[in-house]
Amino acid sequence: MDALTRHHLIPRKQHRRKRIRRRFSRAERAARILWVCRPCHDHIHKHFDEQTLAERLNTREALLAEPVVHDFVTWIARHPPGFKPRG
To answer: Which domain of life does this protein belong to (predicted)?
Structure first.
């Protein structure tokens, strides 16, 4: 397995937004972390802006329910560790 990267389910830049502060406590904002491989992390940020991640895709389940993420995770799981997709 490749080294994993820390994906903040609520992006750190969004922590200061009033809407996010009202919805999630400081502890919740800090604790929502998902460890993912680099290709998956890049894919997530390629397809979703930080506001969408913070407001709608702030759990593992919500993120994996998105077809673009689910399909990519399924696809990359068939490749050997260290595989780096193009583009």
So the answer is: Bacteria
Q: State the Cα–Cα distance between residues 51 and 68, nearest whole angstrom.
A: 17
Task: Enumerate residue ranges in the chain where pLDDT < 50.
Answer: none
Q: How far apart are CA 69 and CA 36, in angstroms?
A: 12
Q: Do residues 44 and 53 touch, judged by C-beta distance below 8 A?
A: yes
Radius of gyration of the CA atoms of the chain, in A: 14
d(CA 67, CA 25): 29
Question: What pTM did the predictor assign?
Answer: 0.89
Q: What is the pLDDT of residue 82?
A: 85
Q: Measured between alpha carbons, how far is 33 from 37 in angstroms, rounded to an integer?
A: 13
Nearest to 8, CA basis, from 82, 68, 22, 44: 44
13-27 confidence digits (pLDDT tens): 999 999 999 999 999
Structural domain spans, the chain: 4-77
